[in-house]
Specification:
By secondary structure, the chain is of the alpha+beta class. The chain is built from 33 helices and 29 strands. The strands form eleven sheets. It has a five-stranded mixed β-sheet with strand order 11-10-9-14-25. α7 packs across α9 (179-194). It is globular and about 95 Å long.
């Protein structure tokens, strides 16, 4: 006889749970797996995946966003949404569909919570208001004022829900937009005050060939790129570290994304190397923005870092082909030497082995980067940053820095690069644009606060908005003098005699100024014209034969184009403008590949006559434009660092780093580079030995072929710049005159490229450059693209007790215009050089000569 048993509450709960599990699994299979299948079929690139349904839902706004005066109906209410899209009524209504019902069963939310339709209606209203702000602000990227037409958008939604999509990549496989996709699209566009609007392509900003493919009434285009995400089912990216393992006493940082996995992953010892176990790691989320608060930690991150590291994504992401080649020997693995291949790169997260991309160790010094970036922001109009850093100028007195200039900005653009002399590590890449300068590149017009007399047209150039330290170049002007001096002093015929004369002059004038005719006196001024060879300083890479990358170098590992022979070098390089001199385009066309200028026979008498003043003497300024004859003009122009010569702030800093290394007595140099190492977590080489760093982008030294004697003479001459040369007035804006008179710890050179409007006001330019005004050739040059740049490059000592030159800095600025006169600041070599000021502001704070707090 069986015994009857009572059923406990615990047994009932277990039975109920068992019954619910199949239901939950069914829902997950119905909802999640189709999405994964869709992504897998559509994504040709395993590194990225795009939800076709999500893109189609977002593209309904291409129909709903119209010119504001053509809006037929406002953003729909919740009731209108449910009425107009009845197939979504159940999901968008109070219940929220099966998933909403399931959420209610599990979490028991309050009955009076908003329905999905109510939330969507509120978000659509937010989008419409954001469109009004976006298109009616002074600086807008869309040509007309636009708004959301609720009726047109609902028509597009109904059509999207009823029209299956077939993608070329997946023939025969049709996707159907679902109600959840529409709700997600609305939420995506409304998120963060509709910040996504700034990333869309707009009529009035995109080039004509793109807009020509749009519908006549279309104002915006939404691309798949905006909906692309890293593949969430194929591991997680590696980490990006700043100032990796430089100094255990100072904190190190990792650059994180918005997701939370970074904190759990990037603080683990196996990710940043066992030797760094005691390092304190801090989190930096994202890149700096022009308007971020003074205390924001993102000042420590170089602008445009994601763009600069893009070539490494094939290793940073665990789905990249090169990642696979190094971890499992597939794909390109056959091209790799066996010694270079590694095993799986995995870490344990929540008791599961997870594949993780390779980490990137950067050379950036976070505190120096923050100082440089804030100084650039201060000089381009951020008065709050100037106050926080304590930056002042004697000319401004108690007034804000640059108060007499447009936008209260000393310069319209500032680009700064700082390189460690001994190691070649790039420790700072900073840059900023004034607000009105940004408007010349990011939209169809200038705002009311910007001066409309500027002679430069506004056009959409996203590349011009990137970090100007590496994405902007200019004629180097007199900053090429150290290169020229080194060439003269190393000349086998006259070099030894000149070097002996300069060394004797140093001995005679110790403690005083060099003699007027000495080479060092020429270096402290800006009035010489010489040709020189630049290859020993890292310039003119790949210029031997006509090439598009003439004068460029790899930012990541510092290699020239000619040195990239290994398999990975080309794929992992990021070429940026560095420096070129004495080059010419292949066909006389500036868009043609450049190459070194061939030796030509030039009448020295003609050169002397064209460059001399009316009395036969050398003029007081570099007036090379008077010369006649194409060859003479080009060669003389190059001798002044004008013409086809170009350099970036990084190239200027790199050139000074080479000179300083030679003066220090180094026998080799390391080219400036941004990446120290690419490392994995617990990797082993083919011999089974622990080896976390990949053999990629090897940072190798090169022989230094500039003599120490010549370098010491040149650097000694450059120390007179702040004492009695062209950087003296800039120095006296920051320090007392007696400090500048004894300043021998900065060896720098100024440069002022040709600018045809030093003697014209903005009002004169506005009249001269107006459409239909007849112009001479010289007047056409005045209305051309040349901008008023100023340069400063220098080597400096961070420790006065150490005679070695430790850092090199390059600064490029675009000068600004006075408010009252409309004339340019610092015409020619007159007035303080703002590029030299910026460099000295940074150097003085880095060395402790001026106080500085990171906040």
């Amino acid at each position: 006889m069986s015994e009857s048993r009572s059923v406990t509450l615990l047994q009932l709960a277990i039975a109920a749970s068992v019954a619910v599990v199949p239901v939950l699994l069914t829902v997950l299979l119905l909802v999640v797996l189709p999405g994964r299948a869709e992504d897998a079929k559509v994504a040709g690139n395993p590194d990225r995946h795009v939800s076709v349904r999500h893109v189609a839902a977002l593209k309904t706004f291409e129909y709903g966003i119209v010119r504001r005066d053509q809006v037929r109906a406002p953003a729909p209410s919740a009731e209108k949404l449910l009425e107009r899209v009845p197939q979504c009524a159940r999901e968008w209504g109070r219940s929220g569909g099966p998933l909403g019902l399931l959420r209610k069963i599990v979490s028991q939310p309050a009955e009076n919570g908003p329905s999905p339709a109510t939330r969507m209606a509120a978000q659509l209203g937010d989008i419409d208001r954001a469109l009004t702000r976006f298109s009616s602000a002074d600086n807008r990227r869309v040509i007309d004022r636009v708004g959301l037409d609720g009726a047109r958008w609902l028509d597009a939604v109904v059509k999207a829900l009823d029209t299956p999509i077939e993608m070329p990549d997946s023939p025969g496989y049709r996707f159907v937009v679902q109600c959840t996709d529409i709700a997600l699209a609305v939420s995506t566009l409304a998120r963060s005050n509709a910040r996504l609007l700034n990333a869309l392509a707009w009529r009035g900003t995109e080039v004509e060939r793109v807009v020509g493919q749009w519908r006549p009434d279309q104002y915006v285009e939404i691309s798949q790129r905006l909906a692309a995400r890293s593949n969430p089912w194929a591991g997680i990216p590696g980490c990006i570290y700043l100032n990796h393992a430089r100094d255990s006493a100072s904190p190190s940082y990792f650059v994180a994304s918005a997701r939370g996995l970074d904190d759990a992953l990037c603080r683990r010892s196996e990710m940043f190397g066992a030797e760094a176990l005691e390092m304190k790691l801090a989190r930096l989320t994202g890149e700096p923005t022009p308007d971020m608060p003074v205390g924001d930690p993102r000042w420590r991150v170089p602008p445009s870092l994601g763009v600069m590291l893009q070539p490494l994504e094939a290793l940073h992401q665990p789905t990249g082909s090169l990642y696979r080649a190094y971890t499992d020997g597939t794909s390109e693995g056959a091209l790799l030497p066996v010694r270079d291949q590694r095993g799986p790169n995995r870490v344990e997260l929540d008791n599961h082995a997870v594949e993780v991309g390779f980490s990137i160790d950067l050379t950036i010094d976070p505190e120096l980067q923050a100082l440089a970036q804030k100084t650039a922001a201060c000089y381009t109009g951020r008065d709050d940053v100037c106050r926080a850093l304590g930056i002042t100028r004697k000319e401004d007195g108690a007034q804000p820095v640059g108060h007499a200039l447009l936008e209260h900005a000393m310069v319209r653009m500032a680009a700064i690069a700082i390189v460690d002399v001994e190691s070649g590590r790039i420790e700072a890449l900073a840059g900023a644009l004034s607000p009105c300068t940004r408007e010349e590149y990011d939209g169809p017009g200038r705002s009311a606060k910007c001066d409309r007399r500027m002679p430069y047209p506004t056009r959409y150039r996203p590349d011009a908005l990137l970090n100007p330290a590496v994405f902007h170049d200019a004629m180097p002007a007199s900053t090429i003098k150290p290169i020229m001096a080194a060439a003269f002093l190393s000349d086998p015929q006259v070099g030894p005699r000149w070097l002996k004369e300069e060394q004797s002059d140093i001995a005679r004038s110790r403690g005083g100024l060099p003699s007027t005719q000495s080479l060092r006196a020429q270096l402290m001024r800006s009035d010489s014209a010489i040709q020189a060879e630049a290859a020993l300083f890292g310039w003119n890479s790949a210029c031997t034969s006509p090439r598009e990358d003439c004068g460029k170098r790899d930012l990541l590992f510092g290699r020239g184009a000619n040195a990239r022979g290994d398999v990975d070098a080309g794929a992992l390089a990021f070429e940026v403008s560095y420096g070129r001199l004495l080059v010419e385009p292949l066909r006389g066309d500036l868009t043609a590949p450049f190459h070194l200028r061939s030796p030509v026979a030039i009448d020295s008498g003609k050169v002397k006559r064209c460059a001399a003043g009316p009395n036969g003497r050398w003029p007081d300024k570099d007036d090379w434009e008077k010369c006649g004859g194409g060859v003479v003009v080009d060669v003389v122009a190059e001798g002044w660092g004008q013409g086809h010569a170009r350099a970036s702030a990084l190239g200027g800093a790199g050139m000074m780093a080479v000179l300083a290394a030679a003066a220090n007595g180094q026998s080799s140099r390391v080219n400036p580079h941004l990446v120290d190492a690419i490392r994995g977590a617990g990797l082993r080489d083919v011999a089974g030995q622990a080896s976390s760093a990949l053999p990629l982008g090897r940072i190798e030294s090169e022989p230094l072929r500039i003599s120490r004697d010549a370098a010491e003479v040149i650097v000694d001459g450059l120390t007179y710049g702040p004492r009695a040369g062209t950087s003296r007035r800039a120095c006296e804006q920051i320090f007392e005159a007696k400090v500048c008179a004894g300043m021998d710890w900065i060896a720098g050179k100024t440069g002022t490229p040709t600018f045809p409007n030093d003697d014209r006001s903005l009002s004169e330019l506005a009249r001269l450059c107006a459409p239909g005004v007849a112009k001479t050739n010289r007047e056409r040059m005045a209305c051309g693209p040349l901008r008023p740049y100023k340069w400063y490059i220098a080597a400096y000592r961070t420790d006065r007790n150490d005679p070695h030159w430790t850092k090199a800095i390059g600064v490029l600025t675009e000068r600004n215009w006075f408010v009252d006169t409309g004339r340019i600041h610092g015409a020619g070599d007159h007035g303080p050089n703002p590029a030299a000021e910026i460099a000295m502001q940074i150097i003085a704070r880095q060395t402790g000569d001026l106080p500085w707090s990171e906040h």
